[in-house]
Every structure is written in structure tokens, then in C-alpha cells.
UniProtKB/TrEMBL annotation:
Residues 47-162 form the DOMON domain. It comes from Brassica campestris (Field mustard). Its main location: membrane. This is DOMON domain-containing protein. The lineage of its organism: Eukaryota, Viridiplantae, Streptophyta, Embryophyta, Tracheophyta. InterPro entries: AIR12_DOMON (IPR045265), DOMON_domain (IPR005018), UCP037471 (IPR017214).
């Protein structure tokens, strides 16, 4: 009796953790509505922001989509590359500013001092296909930047949000997350640093989720499970050992625990292999 209610508790904890992780917003499970597909993405560590991009190192063309979610009030947002420094001064920004008529103005603005009002101007590199859209509390800016490879593919990036007064952009807050919104992006390795929570395997994530997109239901659930399982197991183990929540497992012998671990491990590997081959199959349909 005690054992089975314990088991139930353990299962609920486990399912709760998996659900929580699966529902956490990450860039790799975001689906763009139309033609815009990007090879890589990063979850930026502050300001509910994500950067999606495709880089062609021979042409130097960087196609980006910067997304800022959870915008509960009208705000301007900006994403910038800083070719000369790591902070705000020198940043070459693409800006999106909501207009009173509901449209969004997208433009470029080079930042030469802290006193900027983000006035429009040409950047130090070429920008094309610039546009922005606001929907469901989310702003997206699309642009193609011409950035020949330098510095091993590393670029310094900055992003921001701030309030509006009519059509005027007010300065962004100068504390909290608004001064932590810098990170280094490596265009060649698809990894980010500089305090950013990099999504190391975002490329794989995109492939897996785009495949899952063709097979709704089961495979999506499988993908979500595969992605969340290792970290869910880690958190579960933490509760299990440190808090003693799941004493039903604790009373088992070490050997039984090992068998349990190995079984889960092998199942995950087998599912992952099946997933990859099913995925490849669909990608090359002959
Ligand atoms: C990358 O750019 C080069 C040079 O402009 C071009 O020939 C090539 O097709 C591009 N690659 C992709 C994948 O678009
Ligand atoms: C931008 O592109 C134009 C041609 O499309 C070229 O003449 C110009 O040099 C480029 N500017 C920079 C800064 O690369």
C-alpha cells in the first residue's frame, strides 16, 4: 500500500519534470510560419529572446531572425552586431518599433554613443531583406547581413527592449537583464558564449523537429521525450537521492538500480537510432 502510493508519487514527479522541461521555450522547437527556415538557433539568456540564423561563409551572408517573446506592452526591440567592441557603443543595430497604426517599422541604426535615440542610419556592413512583424506578444525582425568571416567566425551581439512614448523610443532600462544582454555568437560552430546559455545541439534539434513536423503526434512526443529525458532523469535522481522522495526505489539493491538505469539508457539509445534513421529516410525519399 505504502509502496504503491510511493510509486505513484515518483511517477507523478517524473512526469511533472518531463512536462515542465518539454514545455520550456527553446528556439529549436519553434516553427516559422512560411519560407523562413534557419539552420541554427540560440536561446539567448535574457529578455526572452532567440536568434535563428543561417550563415554562408563563402558569401558572408548571415540571414537572421531575432525573436523577442513575452512583450506584454508595446516596446521597441533591437538586435545588433558589434564589430568593434563587446557592448553597446559601436553596435550596428536592426531595430523594430511598433507604430500607432499597428504596423511595425524596421530599420537600421548604428550606435555611436550611450546617448543614442536609435535614429536611422546606414550600418558598417550591408543589410538587406529587412522586415519585422509583431504578433501574439512576440516581435520578430528578419534581416540578411553581409558579414565576411573574421575573428574565427565569432561576432559580438547585443539585444535590447525599451518603452515607447508615442513614436519616440525611450532609453532602455540600465539595470538587470537589460545590461546582461550581450553574447558572442560563433557563426561557424553554431555555439554561443559570453554568459549565454548556448544551445549546443540546436542544429540536430532543428533537424529532429522538422522531421517530427511531418509526423505529427507520436514522433513529436517521441522527440520531446528524447530531448527531455536525460535532464529529467538528472533532476529525478536528485530528488530521489537527496530528498528521499522516492523511497520505493531507494530500498532496492544497487544492482536493481543499475539494471533500471541501463534499461532506460539502452531504450533511449535505441529510440534515438530509430529516430535518426526514420528521419534520414524521410529527408532522402528514394
Ligand atoms: C553561398 O554563397 C556562395 C557565393 O555567393 C554561393 O555560390 C552558394 O550557392 C551559397 N550557398 C548556399 C547554400 O546558399
Ligand atoms: C554594399 O553593397 C554594395 C553593392 O550592393 C557595395 O557597392 C558596397 O560596397 C557594399 N558596402 C559594404 C560596406 O560592404
Amino acid at each position: 500500500m505504502a509502496k504503491s502510493s510511493n510509486l505513484l508519487l515518483c511517477l507523478s514527479v517524473f512526469i511533472f519534470i518531463i512536462t515542465k522541461l518539454a514545455l520550456a521555450q527553446t528556439c529549436s522547437n519553434y516553427k516559422f510560419s512560411s519560407k523562413n527556415l534557419f539552420e541554427s538557433c540560440n536561446d539567448l539568456h535574457v529578455l526572452d529572446s532567440f536568434i535563428h540564423y543561417t550563415y554562408n561563409s563563402s558569401s558572408g551572408n548571415l540571414q537572421v531572425a531575432y525573436r523577442h517573446t513575452d512583450l506584454t506592452s508595446k516596446k521597441w526591440v533591437a538586435w545588433a552586431v558589434n564589430p568593434t567592441s563587446t557592448g553597446m557603443v559601436g553596435a550596428q543595430a536592426i531595430v523594430a518599433s511598433p507604430q500607432p497604426d499597428g504596423s511595425v517599422r524596421a530599420y537600421t541604426s548604428p550606435v555611436s554613443s550611450y546617448q543614442t535615440s536609435l535614429q536611422e542610419g546606414d550600418l558598417s556592413f550591408n543589410v538587406s531583406e529587412l522586415s519585422a512583424a509583431y504578433q501574439n506578444n512576440e516581435m520578430i525582425i528578419f534581416a540578411t547581413l553581409t558579414l565576411p568571416v573574421s575573428n574565427g567566425g565569432n561576432i559580438n551581439t547585443v539585444w535590447q527592449d525599451g518603452s515607447l512614448s508615442g513614436n519616440n523610443l525611450l532609453p532602455h532600462p540600465t539595470s538587470g537583464n537589460n545590461i546582461r544582454s550581450v553574447s558572442t555568437l560563433n557563426l561557424l560552430s553554431a555555439a554561443s558564449g559570453g554568459g549565454g546559455a548556448g544551445a549546443g545541439d540546436s542544429k540536430l534539434g532543428l533537424q529532429v523537429s522538422s522531421w517530427a513536423g511531418n509526423q505529427p503526434g507520436f514522433s513529436l512526443a517521441l522527440t520531446v521525450l528524447l530531448v527531455s529525458l536525460p535532464s529529467a532523469l538528472q533532476q529525478f535522481n536528485f530528488l530521489w537521492y537527496k530528498l528521499g522522495v522516492c523511497s520505493v526505489f531507494k530500498t532496492q539493491t544497487r544492482a536493481q538500480v543499475n539494471i533500471y538505469h541501463h534499461t532506460i539508457g539502452y531504450t533511449v539509445i535505441i529510440l534515438a537510432v530509430v529516430n535518426v534513421f526514420k528521419g534520414l529516410d524521410i529527408l532522402s525519399p528514394e
